[in-house]
Amino acid sequence: MPKSLTTQILNILRQTWRQLHTKRVPFDRLLCGGEDWLSAAQYADHTGNCRRPSTPFSQSPHVKLLEQYQQIGEEIFRPDVFQKTTYFANAVECMDVTGHYFSCTRPEQVEQVARRFVARLRNEAPQDSTPLPAAYSAYFSSTSSQVCVRPIQHSNCYQVLDGNHRLAIAYVRGEKTYPVRPVPPAVLTPLQEELLEVGWLRGQLMLYQPISSPELGEKWVVMRRCSDRFEMMQRFLETHNLMPPNCQTYLDIPCGYGWFVRAFSQLGFDARGVDVDWASLQAGKVAYGLAPAQLIRSEAVHFLQSHPGRYDVTSCLGLLHRFLFGEESVSAEEMLRLLDEITGSVLFLDMGQGHEAPFRDSLAGWDADRIEQWLQDKTSFTKICRLGTDSDSVPPFADRYGRTLFACLR
After folding, report:
1. I need a surface site. Which of 53, 183, 237, 405 has the fewest CB within 10 A?
2. Cis-peptide, bond into residue 254, ω within 30° of zero
3. Quick check: 305 pLDDT over 50?
4. Is 116 helix (H, G, I), strand (E, B) or coil?
5. How far apart are CA 250 and CA 260, in angstroms?
6. Per-residue confidence at 68, pLDDT binned at 50, 70, 90?
7. How many other CB atoms sit within 10 Å of the CB of residue 19?
8. 9, 193, 202, 339, 342 from 347: Cα distances, Å
9. Cβ 329 vs Cβ 298: under 8 Å
10. CB within 8 A of 317, min separation 6: which ones?
11. At a CB cut-off of 8 Å and minimum separation 6, what does 130 contact?
């Protein structure tokens, strides 16, 4: 067979293989990966940045550099500007992890790679005054090679394995999709791993509190919206003049991932949360960016019995009814006394009620009236206020929730 014909056949076979193994994916389904063919999870382990694998590619250092270049042009390469870019920081971090960024082994070489990158955006050859580092082409993928991505489990998203620069150029030029080659196996992001480790959820694709992250799409069911109860709490605090600086400290027990800890922090409170489930707390650190000091791993009764002092504002949501079952270490009245004792100004509380399908027998008769009377009889608070009911009683939880939120005021 003539050599030219053999070459033609091989090219056809390569093209066919590529077509069969290529998928055009929208940019909003692409997430940041690792570097130097390290997976996103591996890179997150090395750097401690567990949020990176959940970051949309549109927010990647590569895209940000090109967008900054479009805004300020060559000013981007002034040393005092360039060295503050996330692209430079990412390259230096990569050198710390792998020993190199492409062929760069020193920070001062990164500008040369960046200039080459910008030249490709402008369809220009790099200037002679900025030669490429040695063996540059050995590290950079060919522009004709396929961009490789890894599927992310329980989602329609992918993490980028190779081809960050090509993807960034296409995105900044306004393209909405890009042809990529998915490379198995499908993986979990660090955030997904923590969420699936939450003990009481037993690996179900459920979010106890809202988390906004691209890989947590339609397959993940949000159990409690939180924002409705938070709005009631905030209005009550504002009405009673209990916002910072009049009240400064806040405790949520149990806190789950820490949604309310973040929300009260944003109001100016020194906010803390306590939960016994370590995976919930780890998920909160990744999802909400909470500091380790804000989240305390402890069983609720042990924490309340051993913790001195008070918090100005406290909340106990979705917990107290479990003590009515007689399966916890103390009685419901004792748990209520401990909450009373640690609260300085106001305690926000909700609990399971008898109208909910799982509790129709075990909590029969425990409606809002009975809970209110119980709080009045068993605590030292001077006023018990009903703030409203949550809006969580919707499919697939239409037969539960709809609980009354109480404010117990000094």
Report:
1. 183
2. yes
3. yes
4. helix
5. 10
6. very high
7. 9
8. 76, 33, 30, 8, 9
9. no
10. 229, 252, 254, 260, 348, 349, 350
11. 111, 112, 115, 116
Joined together, the tokens standing for residue 126 give 């790099």
Q: How far is CA 111 from the centre of its chain?
A: 32
What does the pLDDT read at residue 327? Answer: 85
Backbone angles phi, psi at 252, to 5 degrees: -115, 125
Cβ neighbours of 165 (radius 10 Å)? 21
365 contacts: CB under 8 Å, gap ≥ 6: 354
Cβ 226 vs Cβ 260: under 8 Å? yes
Q: Is residue 273 helix, strand or coil?
A: strand
Short-list 294, 295, 264, 262, CA closest to 279:
295
Helix axes 61-72, 110-121, angle to 10 degrees: 70
Asked if the peptide bond before residue 182 counts as cis, ω within 30 degrees of 0, the response is: no
Q: Which CATH number fits domain 224-409: 3.30.300.130, 3.40.50.300, 3.60.15.10, 3.40.50.150?
A: 3.40.50.150
Task: Output the DSSP codes for 235-263.
Answer: HHHHHTT-STTTS-EEEESS-TTTHHHHH
Cα distance between residue 114 and residue 334, in whole Å: 63
385 DSSP β-pair partners: 407
Interstrand relation of 177-182 and 23-26 (parallel, antiparallel or unpaired)? antiparallel
Separation between Cα atoms, residue 178 and residue 285, nearest integer Å: 32
Q: How far apart are the first and last CA of the chain?
A: 94
pLDDT band with cut points at 50, 70 and 90 for residue 84? very high
| Assessment of whether the complete model's pTM goes beyond 0.85 | yes
| CB distance 147 to 18 below 8 Å | no
Is the alpha carbon torsion for 201, 205, 206, 209 positive or negative? positive
* Sequence-ordered list of residues with C-beta below 8 angstroms from that of 181, at least 6 positions apart, any chain: 18, 21, 22, 23, 146, 147, 148, 149
Per-domain residue ranges of the chain: 3-188, 197-221, 224-409
DSSP string, 280-308: HHHHHHHHH---GGGEEE--HHHHHHH--
Collapse the DSSP code of 137 into the 3-class scheme (helix H, G, I; strand E, B; otherwise coil) and give the result: helix
Model confidence pLDDT, tens digit, residues 349-359: 999 999 999 99
Residue 352 or 8, more confident: 352
- Asked if pLDDT for residue 32 goes beyond 70, the answer is yes
